Amino acid sequence: MSAIVEAAATAAFELYPAIDVRDGRVVRLRQGDYAQETRYPESPLDLARRYAQAGARWLHLVDLDAARAGGYTLAPLLRAIRAETGLQVQTGGGVRGEDDVAAILGAGAARVVVGSLAVRAPERVLAWLDRFGAERLTVALDARQDAEGAWRLPTAGWTEDSGVRLHPLVQDYVRGGLRHLLCTDIARDGMLGGPNLGLYRELHALAPRLAIQASGGVRNVADVRAARKAGCAGAVLGKGLLDGRFALGDALREAAPC
C-alpha cells in the first residue's frame, strides 16, 4: 500500500446511508433501471430516524422522480429529517440550475449532489463551486468501462454516451476546486458484488486530496474496510444495508478513526 493510501486508511471516513425516494416510497433500482425497482416498507423519515439512532452522522438522499423530470420535490422531507434527526444530508435529483442549488441548501442540505449536469455542463457546475463553496457541492459521476478500458460517463439514465471520459473530467474539477466526488461504477450499482476498488485507487492516485465516496456494490463491513484502504474518504450504503446484510452500527465502528 502506498504511503498516501495508507494515510487515507487511517483518517476519518464517513458513511452515507442512502435513501432513494420515488413516489414517496423508499426504493432501490437495479443499475439505475426504473423498471427494476425494489420497494421497502419504512417511510423515508422513519428510516432516517433509524439510521440516526444507530449513530449515523450523514445521509445520502436521492429524489428519483426529480432525477427523471427535474424539479427537486423532497424539500419538505429534507426539512423534517433535519429537524427530527440532526443528520447532515447530501441530496440531489433534478438539479438543473443555480436556483435549484440555492433552494436545496436553503431547505437544510449540507451538500447538493449534482450528477448529469456535471457531465453535460461542467462550466456551470464549476461556477457553482465558486459561488457556494467546495463544501456545499458533491459531484456525482456514474461511469461505465468500455471495451478498451476507458471510463466513460453516460447520461440520460445511462442510455446515451456523452462522449466525456471520467479521468479528464475529474482533473478539470480538481483544478476548479472540487472537494467531494461521488463515483459509481454502473456495473456494480445494486448488484451487491463489492465496490470497484481498482477504480477508486486510480482516482485517488489521480487526485489524492479529493474526498472520494465509493458508491455501488457495498455488501458488508469488509467492503467498507476495503474502500477505506483504497483511498476513499467515505462510502454510500445502499441495498446491502437496506436488505439487512450488515448492521449500520458495525459499519460505523469500522469507519471510526484509527
From TrEMBL:
Source taxon at top rank? Bacteria
Gene Ontology terms for molecular function = 1-(5-phosphoribosyl)-5-[(5-phosphoribosylamino)methylideneamino]imidazole-4-carboxamide isomerase activity
Q: Where in the cell is it found?
A: Cytoplasm
InterPro entries assigned to the protein according to its UniProt record, in alphabetical order: Aldolase_TIM, His_biosynth, HisA/PriA, Isoase_HisA-like, RibuloseP-bd_barrel
Q: Which GO terms are recorded in the biological process aspect for this UniProt protein?
A: L-histidine biosynthetic process; L-tryptophan biosynthetic process
Any one GO CC term of this protein is: cytoplasm
Active site location: 20, 142
Q: In which pathway does it act?
A: Amino-acid biosynthesis; L-histidine biosynthesis; L-histidine from 5-phospho-alpha-D-ribose 1-diphosphate: step 4/9
Gene3D superfamilies in UniProt: Aldolase class I (3.20.20.70)
This protein's UniProt keywords:
Amino-acid biosynthesis, Cytoplasm, Histidine biosynthesis, Isomerase
Report whether Glycosyltransferase shows up as a keyword of the record: no
* Identification of the protein by name: 1-(5-phosphoribosyl)-5-[(5-phosphoribosylamino)methylideneamino] imidazole-4-carboxamide isomerase
Q: Which species does the entry assign this protein to?
A: Vulcaniibacterium tengchongense
- Cite the source lineage: Bacteria, Pseudomonadati, Pseudomonadota, Gammaproteobacteria, Lysobacterales
